[in-house]
Amino acid sequence: MAATTVNPQSLTNSFYKLEGIQDLDPLLERIGEAKFVLLGEASHGTHEYYTWRAEISKRLIQEKNFSCIAVEGDWPDCFEINRWIKAYPGTPNTILEVLNNFNRWPTWMWANWEISALAQWMRNYNDQLAPEKKIGFYGLDVYSLWESMRIIVDYLEKEDPEAASYARKAIDCFEPYGEEDAYAARLGSIKKTCREEVLRLLLEVKEKAPQYDHAPEAGLNAEINALVAANGEKYYRTMASFGGNSWNVRDQHMVETLNTILNYLGADAKVIVWEHNTHIGDARATDMVDDGDINVGQLIREQHRAEEVVLVGFGSYEGTVIAGRGWDAPMQKMLVPPAIKGSVEEKLHALSPENKLLLFNKNPGSIELFKGWLGHRAIGVVYNPDRERGNYVPTKLTERYDAFLYLDKTRALHPLHLKPQGHLTPETFPFGM
């Protein structure tokens, strides 16, 4: 990865300081009238990524009338957050009761104090709005196949007996396998998949969804759960096949879900997306293209005008993170070592060890420094600091994102299932306030 050499003195005015909420003004100006603002993260377990995204989201909601936050989470779980922040009937008294029901690994991604604080803010904000104006919180991911099937069967049994017959056939098809992974594992030895059943269910629900709104957003809930069933089956079937690309199935599903939400909310709807950098940063500016991978950021850019889409990446030099040593392993707080030499993060730290905001359409020096190929750190829910060099994605930063938040030292987020020190609610702002 050849790097471009630039005199650091020429970069003095090439980035903005990033110390408080007011320092987000240049980013808000850059966003302008965009309808899609995608906010990334370089890990799924860093406090500052969650809190800075929360502060950006609050300003977008308050100042630019954004309609919802859509995240890299399961639809059924996130829909319970959505119901709570909108004070729908039958919701628990506190957001902690909602989040404590998140039991799919990695639980810490959404069952954390940072999300608790954001959800409480959204509830308070929504309390001032008319029902049709309330801000939503939705999940985009594809993993909840079984849970979505159960939800839609229970719902249709009460609301639409004809459609329920399709749902029963679909769930009867899945019943022998028990769980998603078991279905994927046995696909190679069975003659028939469940795809036909779930596609019939999806078509039936899509056609009748407008009739289902006897409860708030019931039609949308039914349609997305049916979509998860259809694309979830495809995802696990692709995982089991030779030459299939389950990554692309997943990201295409997330975009399809996003488009379904926006169609439901109406022509004026605007959305904030929270996902990992590997999903929101344009795949065409990384080595993902070598494997034929696409992602959410690329697809949104391709489907909409340039001025409608703003992609915002995040990164840090060193700190701590919550992750697991393996899939389904216990979560733990791990050290994140200083970024490797020549990486995006190391270059920004070498310029000055302070937080920075880069806007690539307004900072000529930063464009020059980062226009070539550089390693850019990406930590997933599974992390091994001892193999740090394997955690870098070759990236053309100025093409991958429209803006970049660099946070020099970061710390692990605060999962609900780990007791905070002193038994106090952790501080949930990205800076002293």
TrEMBL record:
One of its GO terms (biological process) is response to antibiotic. CDD domains: Ere-like (cd14728). It comes from the Bacteria. This is Erythromycin esterase family protein.
